[in-house]
TrEMBL record:
GO MF term (any one): serine-type endopeptidase inhibitor activity
Species classification: Eukaryota, Metazoa, Ecdysozoa, Arthropoda, Chelicerata
This protein's GO CC annotations: extracellular space
Lineage top rank: taxon: Eukaryota
Domain Serpin: 3-72
Presence of keyword Glycoprotein: yes
Name listed for the protein in its UniProt record: Serine protease inhibitor
Subcellular location: Secreted
Record-linked PANTHER family: GH10112P-RELATED, SERINE PROTEASE INHIBITOR, SERPIN
Family named by the database record: Belongs to the serpin family.
Length: 78
């Protein structure tokens, strides 16, 4: 949706612990229905890196309007 003063874009991403097995049908539905990507990550051992990657993704998708949504440099609890 776009007008001279407003642009609306939607972005979706699902993060899953890399030790979890995700059904291929679920991954396909994420893509087909929500236009979402699935990323397998290691929350327990790489939390700060995951947070930095998520925040970079958010910055990119919002064209810098939102700097991030996760605190960087801290472990991520599951």
């Amino acid at each position: 949706m776009s007008s001279p003063n407003v642009t609306l874009e939607v972005a979706n991403m699902v993060l899953a612990q890399n030790s979890f097995q995700i059904a291929e049908s679920y991954i396909q539905q994420l893509h087909d229905i929500f236009d979402a990507e699935l990323r397998s990550v290691d929350f327990a051992n790489e939390g700060p890196r995951v947070a930095a990657e998520v925040n970079a993704w958010v910055r990119g998708k919002t064209r810098g309007k939102i700097d991030g949504i996760l605190p960087e440099g801290q472990p991520l609890d599951m």
